[in-house]
Amino acid sequence: ERAPRRILVTGGAGFIGSALCRRLIAEGYTVCNADKLTYASNLANLASVETHPAYSFVELDIVDNRPLLSVFRSFQPDAVLHLAAESHVDRSISNAPIFVQTNVVGTTVMLDAALTYWNENGRTPTFRFVHVSTDEVYGDLPLEGGRFTEDTPYNPSSPYSASKAASDFMAAAWCRTYGLPVVISNCSNNYGPYQNIEKLIPLMIDKAVRGEQLPVYGKGLNVRDWLHVDDHVEGLERVMLFGQIGSRYNFGGDSERANIDVVHTICKHLDEKRTKPKGSYADQIAYVTDRLGHDLRYAVDSSRAREELGWRPLRQFEEGLGETVDWYLANQEWCEASRRKLG
Ligand code: NAD
């Protein structure tokens, strides 16, 4: 069997997609990155690979079938890693339709284009469509006890997670109905460099150094499991290479932390790094009205990925978080560009 070498990545100009493109290029793959370049994207994330001969970029919207199909036909991928999505829960609460458009309709158009291409190529047995999703599709857990497994029934809470759940069902349906070789991944919260400034960790770092309030939802007790983005993209490569068709794989960092503890860890790290004239960065914490429908706790069991794919997270959370804080401090121009895009 021929191992995949030519990879079509969607959403490669975003946070996780760009980490994936950087990894795949470093690993010797040929990569075509297809991205609409929404506010969440930043081509600067790809500065280290953009001139590499094995890397190419196409600007397109995944809801548009024709340009998508022509990318499939001209690039001739051995595998697709589909990450393009609207990804911010708060935005999904204030404007849900774009989430349905990109995440549900866009994924369906992607699957359809992949199927057409795969049929035209004689249904190559080694072709894979990796659909990248979130653990938020499972809903939430009580503060004490329990973890999501791949058999946990879907029970999404937010328009974002509902749209991702719908897209996961579409991916599974294309596998069952048309035989498209789909594998799904469901990952917990990612952190690391190049994450859009609107997400919890970069938002807190950015606001802290600019002397602004650090808005924490409710009492900050909601628990998230954190995985370093580089551990996630290594998992995605393994899903592509070793994942069983029609199966799904959970990925988590075994690093459950209450949001308020994450913010305090960031502040502590900043206190050690920077000279705030008086007091601690933690003095800037402000509790704000809770997010509507806020999920209490997420935690995933990644034993299937560990056992079947030989995957495990390599980075310890507090250490990775410290490095992440340092990265944002050292990349203030990137932060400004990210902030400008938010308007
Ligand atoms: P992101 O918002 O940083 O990046 C999304 C990228 O998709 C952007 O470059 C954007 O331009 C592109 N995009 C959006 N709509 C598009 C469209 N219609 N056509 C083509 N491109 C489009 O997101 P992220 O955090 O990197 O997440 C990537 C994927 O991973 C998403 O599918 C998300 O649901 C999933 N995921 C994210 C996390 C997380 O913690 N960030 C965890 C698990 C799963």
In CATH, the homologous superfamily of the domain at 6-195 and 227-253 and 296-314 goes by the name NAD(P)-binding Rossmann-like Domain
Find the count of extended strands (DSSP E, 2+ residues): 12
pLDDT under 50 segments (min length 5)? Answer: none
Class based on secondary structure composition and strand pairing: alpha/beta
The CATH topology of the domain at 6-195 and 227-253 and 296-314 comes to Rossmann fold
Q: Please give the radius of gyration in angstroms.
A: 20 Å
What is the overall shape? Answer: globular
Q: Please state how the strands of the largest beta sheet are arranged side by side.
A: 3-2-1-4-5-6-10
Helix content: 40-55%
Number of DSSP helices? 11
Output mean pLDDT: 96
Spell out which ligands are present.
nicotinamide-adenine-dinucleotide
Approximate strand percentage: 15-25%
Protein name: dTDP-glucose 4,6-dehydratase
Cofactor: NAD(+)
Keywords: Lyase, NAD
Pfam families: GDP_Man_Dehyd
Describe the structure.
This protein is of the alpha/beta class. The chain has a domain at 6-195 and 227-253 and 296-314: Rossmann fold (3-Layer(aba) Sandwich), CATH 3.40.50.720. It is built from 11 helices and 12 strands. A 7-stranded parallel beta sheet has the order 3-2-1-4-5-6-10, with helices on both faces. Strands 7-9-11 form a 3-stranded mixed beta sheet. A two-stranded parallel ribbon has the order 8-12. Strand 1, helix 1 (15-26) and strand 2 form a beta-alpha-beta unit. Helix 1 (15-26) crosses helix 7, helix 2 (65-75) packs parallel to helix 4 (97-120) and helix 8 (259-273) packs across helix 10. The N and C termini lie far apart (49 Å). It binds nicotinamide-adenine-dinucleotide. The site of nicotinamide-adenine-dinucleotide has 31 residues, from helix 1, helix 4, strand 5 and strand 7. Its EC number is 4.2.1.46.
